[in-house]
Amino acid sequence: MNDDWTTMVEDVLASLPRPNPDAVRSQRVRTRCHKKLTRPPRRRTVEAAVVGSFCAVYLWALLLMALRTHAL
Q: How does pLDDT run across 1-60, given as a tens digit for each residue?
C-alpha cells in the first residue's frame, strides 16, 4: 500500500510544470546573500558574558569541592 502511494505521489509531482527562473528575483537573492557573506559577524557580547559567568561559577564550585575533599 505504501509503495503504491509513493508511486502515485511521484507521478503527480513529475507531471507538475517546472517554474521558470525570474532574473530579477535571482539577482535580488544573490545580492542579499552576498551582503550577508561579506558583512562582519555580529558580536554576541551578552551571550558570551553569560556563558563565561556560568563557566567561572562552575570552575569555582569545582575548586571548592576539590579543596574540601582533600582538606587543603
A: 577 888 999 999 999 998 888 899 999 999 999 998 898 877 778 888 999 999 999 999
> Cell numbers at residue 64, please?
571548592
Torsion sign over Cα 56, 60, 61, 66 = positive
Cell of 37: 557573506
pTM > 0.70: yes or no: no
Q: How many whole angstroms separate alpha carbon 27 and alpha carbon 67?
A: 63
Q: Which residues of 32-69 are buried (b: 16+ CB within 10 A; e: fewer)?
A: eeeeeeeeeeeeeeeeeeeeeeeeeeeeeeeeeeeeee
E strand or H helix at 51: helix 45-70
